Amino acid sequence: MQKEEKRKAKVYLPLASRGHPCNGDQFVWKIFLIALGLRLGFVLFYPQFPLGYDALMYDELGWNLAKGKGFIGGFTGSTIGSPDGPEVGVGPIYPAFLALIYLTFKHHLIAVRIVQAFLSAAVILVLYPKVREAFGSDTGKLSSVLIALYPAFIIYPGILLTETLFLFFLAILIWALISAVQSDSPWRWVIAGAVMGGTILLRQETLVMVPVFAGLVLWQFPREGLIRKLSLFLLVSVLSVGIWTVRNYLVFDELILVSAHGGDTLWISTKGWTEWHDEDPDFQSLVQGLNYIKRNNVLRKEGIINIARDPLNYLLLCIKRLPHLWITSHTTYLAGLTNTYQQSYMHGAFGKLFAKIVLLGGNLALIFMGIWGAFIALKAQKEKLGLIFFFLVPIVVIAIIHFFLFAAPRYQVPIMPFVLVFAGTQLNRLYLMMLPLLRR
Description:
Low-confidence stretches: 1-22
Strand content: under 5%
Number of helices: 20
Order of helices and strands: HHHHHHHHHHHHHHHHHHHH
Number of domains: 1
Largest sheet: none
Distance between the termini: 13 Å
Number of strands: 0
Radius of gyration: 23 Å
């Protein structure tokens, strides 16, 4: 009888607890290869979504850089009508990423998609060691499986937008920061600062994370010499971004930190639009005849005036914006499923409608599980609270930014690895709670 009980217990114990041959790194490498296969299969064999406006602008910037023409054209060029105008609408990292690929493989979009597929899958390898340290091996493996199978991470490598590179940078950033607080080496802080700077130059909104991470480190990891090391992190971050800020000042004679893109984002947020309407009379009356920088300055000023004039209406618009970020099936860029639910129903495409509903339901279930898992983890794992907060910061910061500013479904993608980590935490907890039932 005792042997039978031991046999049942062994069957249902979590993998990390019973010496399974797929334990640890071997297991994660297998999941990585599965993830890579799914992503490569999608970008190589599934019809890809055509390049939209933003993707075309990034492609133009990357190709101009690869040809040696410099950081010209793109968003700024399309606005001022001059293809040779210097770019100031976006940071330099993603265009430089494209340029490097084009220099290596020529102007082939499939090369970009393949590289992005590798980066998307590599997030598993980057995050697993730190997830294991913060949440345990079982959660590390469960979250790796979720990241491997998550539909958006399979779809977005096929799109020439910043989302895939951004989620990879965020994963590297969390790895670098946790490595820094666990090490006595100042070089770890230099690396973390460089990654932080690069992340800001990729997406300017992450600038907000700098004081948040600094405050977290001071609060949760106080020790001798911390101020000096944290200062290294801040200094390298500032210098990394500062090089580009100097370029902007020399080219445009204005102090522009990364990009002159905040004004239009603020203004559209006060209008409640979910997409741009370039022919809108109010918009045209404000920007007609202005270059990109002046246009953004005017729109920023008008956006602030709109908020001051009716703050309650702006708050209501912020609340209405929540579904645009969180309630999504991630089929916006999935060829064959781009129609709305209503359009799919009206056209009688019930199979596609069902697929969209399933993807939506699965995404919402994972987000709910992630929120639940975050609350449980913060309450139950007091001894590792500092490490857990590192995974929470990107979620909270990005969510708050896009509560107040324009939100789109794709802005959710870069923070979903961290949501899935917390979802894995809760799924593992539910599994352990069900073990007595499974043993019967």
